[in-house]
Amino acid sequence: MSSENKAIETAPKLKAPAPKVVVPAPKIARPSCNGISRPKPGGNCFRVWEIADEITEKLGEAAPRKDVLERVTKASIPLATGATQYNLWRNFNGLSGRLVPKVTAVKVKLPKPPTKKPAGKVGSNKPPTPGSAKMPKPPTKKPATPAPVAPATPAPATVAQS
Fold first, then answer.
1. CB 52 within 8 A of CB 42
2. 110, pLDDT greater than 90
3. How far is residue 79's CA from residue 162's CA, in Å, rounded to a whole number?
4. pLDDT above 90 as % of the chain
5. What pLDDT, in 10s, does the model give residues 114-127?
6. Structure confidence at residue 64 (pLDDT)
7. Are 82 and 47 in contact (CB under 8 A)?
8. Total domains present in the chain
9. Which of 33, 46, 54, 107 has the fewest Cβ atoms within 10 angstroms?
10. Domain assignment present for 84
11. What is the reported pTM?
12. Residue 53 belongs to domain spanning
């Protein structure tokens, strides 16, 4: 053995560092439906889904895109993230096509109809009867003047002879 090998064999051996034990974080069960899983809690994606769920609960019907994206921009979430996550939320919930909000009955105050006035008085809505003072007189027609009649045959032309 060479002197180098003896030095290596007699040198104190360093202990290798103990391998770190990585304990994975407990997985949160995320529901999956229609091939789409709900996002993990805590991020912008999760917040968009929360907003859509809140609006749906408040309205009693699926949240309209306009309302969700309005709240998303107020929450300082990028609009593209909001639009993408809204569409994923719709697919997750099995919604397709255009969402038309329900028409709610609105009470409108109509003006009162005019009261009827007694017949025969001035300002009445009744049409005037023939012969009454209110009845307009028919226009008088003037007899039409006959148009001048042209002679049936032309007068013979006189030719001057030279």
1. no
2. no
3. 108
4. 30
5. 777 655 555 556 66
6. 92
7. no
8. 1
9. 107
10. yes
11. 0.48
12. 41-92
- Residue 122 falls inside a structural domain: no
* 101 part of a folded domain: no
The residues that bridge with 29 in the sheet, in sequence order, are none
Q: Is residue 80 part of a domain?
A: yes
Q: How far apart are CA 65 and CA 87, in angstroms?
A: 9
68 pLDDT band, cuts 50/70/90, is very high
Token look-up 């968009």 returns 48
Residue 43 identity: G
Structure tokens at 106: 């609105």
Which of these, 59, 58, 75, 55, lies nearest to 67 by C-alpha position?
Answer: 55
Q: How far is CA 125 from the centre of its chain?
A: 46
Amino acid present at 87: N
Q: Where are the beta strands (DSSP E) in the chain?
A: 32-33, 36-37
